[in-house]
Write a structure and sequence with these properties.
globular; mainly alpha
């Protein structure tokens, strides 16, 4: 039995304890849509464009892939509604819109219409302020962290879960063989993507 078939069988066996959307994601392979005609289903087009440009500002393309290459916004659009409750997703969308509005107010125009240099300057300031706030308020509940940090974690999660990054940065074998627990790192050369 192939791994995907085993997961499908397990999902069907445990179906009573899983949501319909989670089962659907498992059955379809939970792959990010890489087609040219992609449109977001959870995010609006404006939200997707903002996240795409913010992601590329945080993780720009250099000699390695950037957030756009990793299709981070598509990952967030596909995975966010499956992993969180309807209430959590509604709050996320509200916070995202407030964050987009904050960027427009502070930059004087929409984030996506500002030069990459201005974007980086703004993101650097927001990043510093968010981490300073978190360090000064360590006792705050998780849901009261600055929204920027939540969004940054989503972007990083999408980036490191992408196929292009897995193949570029990690050793990758879609059909792994046996497990050897104690192999010297020098023999492997890099970490493995799962």
């Amino acid at each position: 039995m192939e791994r995907r078939d085993a997961i499908k069988f397990t999902a069907l066996f445990m179906g009573a304890g899983m949501s319909a959307s989670t089962i659907a994601a498992i059955m379809s392979g939970c792959k990010t849509d890489t087609s040219d005609g992609w449109t977001p289903t959870f995010l609006t087009l404006a939200e997707a464009e903002f996240i795409e440009e913010l992601g590329e500002t945080i993780l720009p393309k250099t000699e390695t892939p950037g957030a756009k290459d990793a299709q981070v916004v598509r990952f967030i659009d596909a995975v966010r509604p499956l992993r969180f409750t309807t209430e959590d997703n509604a709050l996320f969308k509200t916070d995202l819109q407030q964050f987009i509005n904050q960027s427009t107010t502070e930059l004087g125009k929409e984030f996506v219409k500002v030069s990459p240099e201005k974007r980086l300057e703004w993101v650097t300031a927001i990043d510093k302020a968010a981490y300073e706030f978190s360090a000064a308020n360590k006792d705050l509940p998780e849901n009261e962290r600055p929204f920027y940090l939540v969004l940054k974690e989503h972007i990083a999660g999408g980036f490191f879960n992408s196929e292009i990054v897995a193949k570029e940065f990690f050793a990758f074998d879609p059909n792994p063989g046996r497990y050897d627990a104690c192999i010297p790192y020098e023999q492997i050369g890099r970490d493995w993507a799962l």
